[in-house]
Input
Amino acid sequence: MNVHVSRHPLVQHKQTLLRRAQTEPKKFRELVYEITQFLLYEATADLKLTPRVVETPLQAYDGFEIGERIGLVPILRAGLGMVDAVHDLLPTARVWHLGLYRDHQTLEPVAYYNKLPNQPDIDLCLILDPMLATGGSATAAVEVLKAWGATKIKFVGLIAAPEGVDRLQAAHPDVPIHLAAIDERLNEQAYIVPGLGDAGDRQFGTG
Output
């Protein structure tokens, strides 16, 4: 399976703190930021490089620079908390937003916002969403990006349910999934168990 769960001790430590019901929104946002950067480090290990010569104080150095154009696609609204973490490491990455919410009756995604440009001009799309629960929103996002013309897509999330991983992999086996943890299951309301509750509410102090 094209699924990568980080085993880094700092990721395991921080995602445990993230889950605590007592973790207030400010600290929650900080932990989302920190974990996202660790996951990004792993998700971008295969980025292409191009040669670049720079001048050190002593002489020229034959180095490298990132050779791929990267686009960030946070799923509104919870994915917004992951954008700055990626942007601080990849400041030239472009950011486009997709708005998808889960219908509480059908548990299926409903699209309400799409700000993709007419033509793709990037090499790699990173879908950002803290929770991969039913997998409906992630699968829909990949379908939108493929229809748009994106050919290289990765999903970066924090916590997933097995059901969501299975659904996304079945629909799009070519899309790598990078996570901090895969939990036990979904409950009757399609929340991840043990999970952390609603990531958007906990980031923004709502709900």
In short: The CA atoms of residues 37 and 86 lie 6 Å apart.
